[in-house]
Amino acid sequence: MFRRKSLGAVLVIGFTASLYLSCCRSRSSSGEAITPAQESNFVLIPSGVPAEKIVYTAAHIIPSPNQLAWQEMEFIAFVHFGMNTFTDREWGEGTESPSLFNPTDFDARQWARVLKEAGLKMLIVTAKHHDGFCLWPSQCTEHSVRSSPWRQGKGDVVREVAEACREAGLKFGIYLSPWDRHEPTYGDSPAYNEHFRSQLRELLTNYGEVGEVWFDGACGEGPNGKRQEYDWPSYYRVVRECQPKAVIFGMGPDLRWVGTETGYGRETEWSVVPMEIREPMIKPAPSLDDLFIPGDMTADDLGSRGKIAGARALAWYPAETDVSIRPGWFYHASQDEEVKTPEKLMDIYFSSVGRNGVLLLNVPPDKRGHIHENDIKSLMDMRRILDTTFQTNLVSGARVEASNENEDHPARSILDEDKGTYWTTAGGVESAVLEFALPEKQTFDLAMLQENICVGQRVEEFSLESWNGKGWVLFVQGTTIGYKRLLRFPETTTDKVRLTIIKCRTSPTLSAFGLFKLAS
Ligand code: FUL
Fold this sequence. Notes:
This protein is of the alpha/beta class. Helices cover about 20% and strands about 25% of the residues. The chain is built from 12 helices and 20 strands. The strands form 4 sheets. It has an 8-stranded parallel β-sheet with strand order 7-6-5-4-3-12-11-8. Strands 13, 15, 16, 17, 18 and 20 form a 6-stranded antiparallel β-sheet that branches. α5 runs parallel beside α6 (about 155-170) and α7 (about 190-205) runs parallel beside α8 (about 230-240). The site of beta-L-fucopyranose (FUL) has 5 residues, from loops.
């Protein structure tokens, strides 16, 4: 993937708006419209900016280096393990005795090995769920593994998981529930915020590099009958200070929840969306972290032209799609026969990774502390189907011609297997036709398209047609592409394919294109 340094700072289109936007309009010879100094994953938009300029600006917002590294992982794991594993519940009360936590054969290496073999790239462990029981010996509470019989109170699940991930070559992430049904200070907002920050600090300083911090929004009343007010910006500061490479999910400004727990993202999935923000106290504001207000990101349409038209702020805020391999988030023996089949997991993969998202698949270990055999079987079968499907790109070796190409970014870059190169148009042309002449006839039923998101997400509508000897026949069409789009369609046999970018927010880009035959 083509990389360019992002400033990571906030762009303010204030009184300099006309300057900024006119800059955007004067295109450089490479076809790019924004100079590197203006690139950011966030912009503020003053009132009165015409809709078409907002669209143009949206098309030039880019991921931060951390967001890009996260997106490129594509498929990552959630591991729900904790008190609920032993009480057979989904949400604990916080009154459970630590003596109940006692895995009989805890094996973090098995988790890491299975997930690695299945092709997942990171493991996010529930260090503390809503019941407040800590899987590490926190200095902030007695309600932890230290008070359990497991390894005579000397165990540390978080440490063993972090080490197993490192050994296996997986990234490691942390889920720390702000809602804590055990902690006595919960509800006393300043005291609990301090407690939460201390716990975060313990997790982010003692266990090596952390790739993602997962903040759930659940909130309740504490024993004092008061609702806890979370001090989110102060939590972000701890993450940024202790783990500058980590992305913050959910109630944080880096990654958004896709909006369901089914594993299915939107057909039209924009990574640039309007953001709710606080009024900046100082201009330009120091960073998005200071302005970000966690908002509802569950609507069907988040980033269309209509949605961004009235935005005060726009940010690169990509979708993470979380789903469990079983009906529950935690392990329940009663669900051993309800593990999702490889076919269902494939459908989820195409509807998450294949819709410009990252798939976060939960695989909950059992009371032994093992990933269950049934889950392993589904995961490995899925891996085999994925590997076989994507082994041969049937369009590689094709000749490609574009109706328009930038001389520095020619159409052949799409097929060169180097993600650092890409095709784009010259002169800011927004629609284009690409014709691929295959060396011989091929049969396929799956297409893959990738935009070079390092310069922004732009494509709004495209179609794919095949040549039948007499004319072009439409076989599939789509709206957004983004980092990756996968589309399935009835089997098509041809030696000529035509891709039309019908509508785009500025010059389109494509870094990769593939045609495949689905394996079973
Ligand atoms: C939810 C939690 O309440 C569930 O238990 C689970 O952890 C899921 C991933 O997030 O909000």
